[in-house]
Amino acid sequence: MFLIDTHTHLFSTSFDSDRDQVVQRAMEAGVGKMLLPNIDKDTIQAMLDLADAYPESCLPMLGLHPGSVEDDFREQLAEHRAWFDRRKFYAVGEIGLDLYWRQDNLKRQQEVFMTQVDWALALDLPVVIHSRESCSLILDMLEALPVRGVFHCFTGSVEETMRIVDRGMYVGLGGVITYKANDALRSVVKNIPLDRIVLETDSPYLAPVPYRGKRNESSYMPAVAETLCTLFGKGLDEIAALTTANAQKLFRI
């Protein structure tokens, strides 16, 4: 079994005491590659240090998270953009809109998001989209653009799922699909074609059952895959092979 964690913040300070052990546990659990989404300028170096320490396993992505859109957003964007001329990144992300925490700066979030979408198009990279309470709005914004990518930590509706799939994008599924109260979300997931699903942990957040309440890590990703096995009536090896192939295609790895 070979799995790819398409979204994990292993460079987070939450892992400062045991990061190497966390990476080792992930590989022992069959998670052979882990994609690292950036958050803001202050996390760039930590992410790159981890990617340099494990160049075959930890793959860097770069983007300004909507929750980090502050008064200095143009300065941050300039710093982020310059990095793409210095080294290889596997995606622009994580980027998007977050209308759960803030709505007063929507116009600014939209400017930052679309600027980075333009980078992705120019650099022929996928986007990793954060879409909390904003999925339909983001789909509207992208409607005329040939951008490829994934809606990470997807918790949307069947209608939003179909819009994502119809435009050839992917849905990122993590620990939230394992939670007992999320029957509605699991019903939505059943409508997603298996060739449009990639797996993620979003660690250190959103640990799956039976680890809920603990610090999440990439080694817990088989628990997410096992939930898909139940939903689709497939074996673990088949789910692993399908989702790994999807991730390899999307991120060109």
Mean pLDDT figure: 97
The largest sheet is: 5 strands, parallel
- Report the portion of residues in β strands: 5-15%
Treating each run of at least 4 consecutive H or I residues as one helix, how many helices? Answer: 9
Q: Please give the CATH class.
A: Alpha Beta
CATH architecture: Alpha-Beta Barrel
- The percent of residues in helical segments reads 25-40%
Elements, N to C (H/E)? EHEHEHEHEHEHEHEHH
Short synopsis of the structure:
The chain is of the alpha/beta class and 253 residues long.
Explain the overall architecture.
It is a single chain. The longest helix is centred in the middle third of the chain and has 18 residues. The protein has a 5-stranded parallel beta sheet with strand order 4-5-6-7-8. Strands 1-2-3 form a 3-stranded parallel beta sheet. The chain is an alpha/beta fold and 253 residues long. β7, α7 and β8 form a beta-alpha-beta unit. α3 packs parallel to α4. The protein has a single domain, classed as TIM Barrel, CATH 3.20.20. It starts with a strand and ends with a helix.
